[in-house]
Amino acid sequence: MASLNVEIVYAMPEKQTLLSFEVEEGTTLDQAIGLSGLQTHYPDLDFSEMKVGLFGKLTPRTHVLREKDRIELYRPLLADPKEVRKQRAAAGKKMKKGGDTK
């Protein structure tokens, strides 16, 4: 069976890791995560619960990899961007209402 060259990327605020490795043709994204050796760099993390993607696009873990695919593991967001925008908008409305009472 032929082998494919792939990469896996994971980034923390203070540390980024990019690993290149080979997998057999027919390997799924999920299988490749296990084969990557990334767990040795981040032993405290559970990669099975993380969202994953290829080249910035969310991808199912059952996706069969192709030559030169770059697997990306996404950390959970600390704050939901939509919720933060809503909170800022609400705070802005309160400031406007408070400023009208001169």
Automatic annotation (TrEMBL):
Domain of life from the UniProt record: Bacteria
Gene3D superfamilies xref list: RnfH-like
Query: What family does the Swiss-Prot or TrEMBL record give for this protein?
Result: Belongs to the UPF0125 (RnfH) family.
Q: What is this protein called?
A: UPF0125 protein DKT75_13190
